[in-house]
Amino acid sequence: MRLKLYRAASVAEAMSLVRTELGPEALILSTRRLAQGVELTAALEQEDLPGEPPWKLPAPDIDLSFHGLPQPVSAALAGQNSPAGLARALAGVLRFAPLPVASAGGQDDRPLLMIGTPGAGKTLAVARLATRLVLSGVRPTVITADGRRAGAAEELAAFTRLLGIKLLVAGTPAMLGRAVTAAGQAGPHAPVLIDSAGINPFVAEEVAAVADLAACVQAVPVLVMQAGLHADDAAEQVRALAPAGARHLLPTRLDLTRRLGSVLAAAYAGDLALTEASAGPGAADKLLPVTPDFLAERLLGAGSAAKPALRRPIFPTLREHAAQAWSTETHG
Fold it and tell me: Are the beta carbons of 18 and 42 closer than 8 angstroms?
């Protein structure tokens, strides 16, 4: 039952308001005289009415302006008044697909090459994929082709040692080719995960170099991009990276980002399939499948703070009257 209070100068005016908003089936429960008119309480048994009455007010449109969505995507999502409707609209304007990781099924045996700008989260994405595969009983081959960043091999080696798998280092395309060939000798359909150096999307030579890297081993490039960029910047980066041949997008840092405009702008600008997303600082944190329902939930949850990612305390801090306070690990 829907109850509503109406105030007007006269009973006739109050009744007119009731009929306009609640319709002819509304019941008047009480009336009360006020100093400046009347107060009327009306009720509506909505469940007793067949179908959608013509006088029922339409549900308000979902306001997605908070996210700064690109205009074509915003237009495609306009008028959606429910999470299910929003998810259907997202599925109509964007592509969604699982990561093409080689498995025992052998649907795609090509190596997976993570590409993107410096600090986008490529190394952590490789570590998380490797962790998931090892926990499922599959032993991947992990290769780092990042010869630029100091400590890149050591960072990834720390993860592979914990997983009990070997890390191969390939500083040149020729070395990468030999490493992938060696990985193929480990058995059929063995997944190969390759971490690459961060590149500047607006330097054509760097984009061409990572494209050559993918071509020399017939790898599947996956674009790793941190969320939280301006939507126009994300779209420009994706268009500049087009020669690298990526067809999948793996967003990162969703635990630090509430606005998803950059993620949708990147996927739309490059016609990239949204696959999985990274959230949280640890290699053991799972990658999250990015589906239309997942995106709809995140888009609609923008008005409230996102759930904080689980952090482990790294050292205690002493505060007056707060001996149990802990500092938290941060990552960038």
Answer: yes
Residue 179: Cβ-neighbour burial (10 angstroms; 0-12, 13-18, 19+): buried
Give the whole-angstrom CA distance, residue 210 versus residue 201.
11
Q: What's the DSSP call for residue 255? A: T
List CB contacts of 81: < 8 A, sequence separation 6 or more.
Answer: 58, 59, 60, 61, 62
224 strand-pairing partners: 250
* Residue found under tokens 């929003």: 86
Query: What tokens were used for 70?
Result: 């690109």
At the fourth CATH level, which superfamily is domain 66-303? Answer: P-loop containing nucleotide triphosphate hydrolases (3.40.50.300)
Q: Measured between alpha carbons, how far is 298 from 64 in angstroms, rounded to an integer?
A: 11
Q: How far apart are CA 101 and CA 191, in angstroms?
A: 6
Looking up tokens 């039952």 gives 1
Please enumerate in sequence order all residues whose Cβ is within 8 A of that of 83, keeping only pairs 6 or more positions apart, or say none: 293, 296, 297, 300
Cα distance from N-terminal residue to C-terminal residue, the chain: 51
pLDDT in tens, 97-136: 999 886 544 457 899 999 999 999 999 999 999 999 998 8
Q: Please give the distance of CA 6 from its chain centroid, rounded to a whole number.
A: 44
Q: Which of 171, 163, 249, 237 is nearest to 207 (CA)?
A: 237
**Is 275 in contact with 299 (CB distance < 8 Å)?**
no
Q: DSSP assignment of 7-62, as one string? A: EESSHHHHHHHHHHHH-TT-EEEEEEEETTEEEEEEEE-GGGS-S--TTSPPPPPP
Strand partners, 38: 8, 33
Q: β-pairing, 2-8 with 37-44?
A: antiparallel
Residue 232 and residue 69 in contact, taking contact as beta carbons nearer than 8 Å: no
pLDDT tens digit sequence for 219-230? 999 999 999 999
